[in-house]
Amino acid sequence: MQLRFIRLFFILVLLLLTLAKPSPARPAGADPKPEPAIPAVLAAFDKYEVVAMPEDHGLKDLDDLILGLVRNPAFPDKVNDVVVECGNSLYQPILDRYIAGEDVPLIEARQVWRNTDQPICGGAGSGFFEQLYPLLRAINQKLQPGKRLRVLAGGLPIDWEQVKSFQDILKLGPRDAGIASVMEKEVLSKHRKALMLFGTFHLFHMSEVRASAVSMYEKDYPGVTFVISELIAADMQISAAFADWQSPSLSRVKGTRLGGLDLTHFLPPATRIDEKDCSVHNEFPKHLQKPMEDLVDALLYLGPNDLAMKEQFPAYIVLDTDYIAEVRRRESVLPGGAPPDKEFYQQFVNDSDNPLYTMPKPPDSKDVQGAVQSCLDRKSHSSSPKSEHTP
């Protein structure tokens, strides 16, 4: 199940502005200097208003680090807000009451992280978010009112009861613009400190093309965000550089030989569909074809990639028949549709066979063709004459 959700996630990446030219190769720099990860992340808040780091996409080692970070006694002294990608902003009032410790039934609070616009939040990442939100609520109950954390849902305000097609999802607008809006209105304009937990592509610094959430708000709030990327997908050249590091470690990249390498050494390009002409691309857009030090500030090492652990899908969610039925319905409106019942449930069995994390394979041709056809259908629908019929 993890792989299917991640394949769908990659297909839905629609960052396709290609205005900037690739930067020239940088000269070799100094060796990176790793530091213990959690103290280094906490120290970053002394200089920056926002620390932005990747959150769960099925990688248990990353989950464990984040859970350890927020449980650190120094965390509430450094941070005011935790902004989470896998959170439906439609339910922010419920989330505020739940995190504040009010009497909110868990079944009501779960709408925040189970009813998001991202399939991966209810798939590979669900086990993590089922822990993160209750943990932050429990932490608040130990804090004085003035130090309590606020948790902000960074996802689009989707009402799944009203969603009948993929077009209904697209009507919600660009995800990165929504994330940037939350950050500007709820964090930056109020001079609060925040931990951002989002997929890495939402966090990149960009100056020429503001296609990530961080780059969008950096236009008005430059220099306030410390961006971290993890190394789970790094190639052999990168892996050799941190083979002797302790885990978990964090290393700044500016001026280092790792920072001078381009993004393809660290992350595989996602399959993406150009919304302008529905063409398929398997390389990074030009505004991401640049050295890593231009995109992030630090790299997070979690241990040997071939020994990384994956997040297991909780059995109690599979047994929640009403929720699984709704998950199946949501899958049916996404490009590629929902798999047959047997294939769907077999994913849970297959997922439990191996506890080690493996990088997802690129989407198969059927998924890609489905995404292309969906793009073509949307373009055809948008160019069709409006009906005069009034119901």
Written overview of the protein:
With 391 residues, the protein is of the alpha/beta class. It contains 16 helices and 10 strands. The strands form 2 sheets. Strands 1-7-10-6-2-5-3-4 form an 8-stranded mixed beta sheet. A two-stranded antiparallel sheet has the order 8-9.
The Rg value, from CA coordinates, equals: 21 Å
The end-to-end span amounts to 40 Å
Q: Provide the structure class.
A: alpha/beta
Largest pleated sheet: 8 strands, mixed
Quantity of strands, as a count: 10
The dominant shape is globular
Tally the helices: 16
Residue share in helix: 25-40%
* Count of domains: 1
- The percent range for strand residues is 5-15%
Quote the average pLDDT. 87
Q: Name the helix and strand elements from N-terminus to C-terminus, one letter apiece.
A: HEHEHHEHHHHEHHEHEHEEEEHHHH
Strand order of the largest sheet: 1-7-10-6-2-5-3-4
**Which regions have little confidence, pLDDT < 50, spanning 5+ residues?**
5-27, 384-391
In short:
The protein has 16 helices and ten strands. By secondary structure, it is an alpha/beta fold.
Give short descriptive properties of this protein.
391 residues; alpha/beta; 8-stranded mixed sheet; two-stranded antiparallel sheet; 10 strands; 36% helix; globular; disordered C terminus
List the SSEs and their pairings.
Elements: H1 2-11, E1 35-36, H2 37-44, E2 50-53, H3 60-71, H4 75-78, E3 81-88, H5 92-99, H6 106-109, H7 111-114, H8 126-140, E4 150-155, H9 166-170, H10 175-186, E5 194-197, H11 213-218, E6 225-230, H12 236-241, E7 249-252, E8 272-273, E9 280-281, E10 298-301, H13 315-318, H14 321-332, H15 341-351, H16 365-383
Parallel strand pairs: 2-5, 2-6, 3-4, 3-5, 6-10
Antiparallel strand pairs: 1-7, 7-10, 8-9
Helix pairs in contact: 3-8
